[in-house]
């Protein structure tokens, strides 16, 4: 067994074992309810709402509703590629069809417009600087092309740009600054 498989087993193993006699869908939902919701989604939502002075309520996580939904058959949870078919049916006369029939949608940030607008200079200054990790380790022409294509609005390159910015800032924090601290200490 590979080390990565052992690590996955350490994190997920007990949850999958607890739900081993259920369907694959229910196993995944169980693991999500034990790890992804409390350790990721709810933490982020809590931090974002508290940062803005808001109190968050998650009515669909009421324990009685969660227990009821857990006991439903798979086809009531996922049907023809759409989740929550029972909830969609119950809300059919309450909400417009455009809401009921749309695919699941998260809460995306307007990253594409930010990178073209208020973060444009920041992006250029960090990714295209002569000493940038992106230009030193990647093809400078390719990085420049991605930045310019996005700025011109020809195509949305926000995912690539965000990835490059994260790499650049990580590199500056943990490689460049760490190196400077070691040299200063010497």
User: What share of the residues lie within helices?
Assistant: 55-70%
Number of strands: 2
Distance between the termini: 43 Å
Task: Name the quaternary structure.
Answer: single chain
Strand content: under 5%
The Cα radius of gyration reads: 23 Å
Strand order in the sheet with the most strands = 1-2
Structural class: mainly alpha
Integer tally of domains: 3
- How many helices does DSSP assign? 10
Reported for the largest beta sheet, the result is: 2 strands, antiparallel
Order of helices and strands: HHHEEHHHHHHH
Describe the structure.
By secondary structure, the protein is mainly α. It has three domains: 3-71, no CATH class; 81-107, no CATH class; 111-185, no CATH class. Helix content is 66%, strand content 2%. The chain contains ten helices and two strands; from the N terminus they run αααββααααααα. It has helices spanning 3-18, 24-51, 63-70, 85-91, 97-100, 111-116, 120-127, 133-137, 140-152, 158-185, and strands at 78-79, 82-83. Strands 1-2 form a two-stranded antiparallel ribbon. α7 runs antiparallel to α9 (140-152). The two termini are 43 Å apart.
Summarize the structure.
This protein is mostly helical and 186 residues long. The protein has 10 helices and 2 strands, in the order αααββααααααα.
Secondary-structure topology with pairs:
Blueprint: H1 3-18, H2 24-51, H3 63-70, E1 78-79, E2 82-83, H4 85-91, H5 97-100, H6 111-116, H7 120-127, H8 133-137, H9 140-152, H10 158-185
Antiparallel strand pairs: 1-2
Helix pairs in contact: 7-9
Question: What key attributes describe this structure?
Answer:
186 residues; mainly alpha; two-stranded antiparallel sheet; 10 helices; extended
């Amino acid at each position: 067994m590979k080390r990565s498989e052992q690590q996955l087993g350490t994190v997920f193993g007990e949850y999958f074992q607890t739900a081993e006699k259920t369907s694959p869908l229910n196993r995944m939902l169980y693991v999500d309810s034990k790890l992804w919701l409390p350790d990721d989604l709810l933490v982020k939502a809590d931090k974002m709402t508290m940062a803005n002075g808001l109190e968050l309520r998650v009515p669909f996580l009421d324990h009685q509703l969660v227990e009821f939904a857990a006991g439903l058959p798979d086809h009531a949870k996922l049907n023809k590629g759409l989740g929550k078919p029972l909830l969609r049916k119950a809300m059919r006369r309450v909400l417009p069809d455009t809401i009921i029939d749309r695919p699941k949608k998260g809460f995306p940030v307007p990253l594409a417009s930010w990178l073209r607008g208020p973060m444009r200079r920041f992006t250029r200054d960090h990714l295209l600087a002569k000493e940038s990790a992106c230009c030193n380790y990647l093809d400078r022409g390719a990085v420049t092309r991605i930045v310019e294509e996005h700025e011109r609005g020809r195509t949305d390159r926000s995912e690539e740009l965000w990835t490059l910015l994260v790499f650049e800032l990580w590199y500056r924090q943990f490689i460049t600054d760490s190196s400077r601290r070691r040299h200063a200490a010497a």
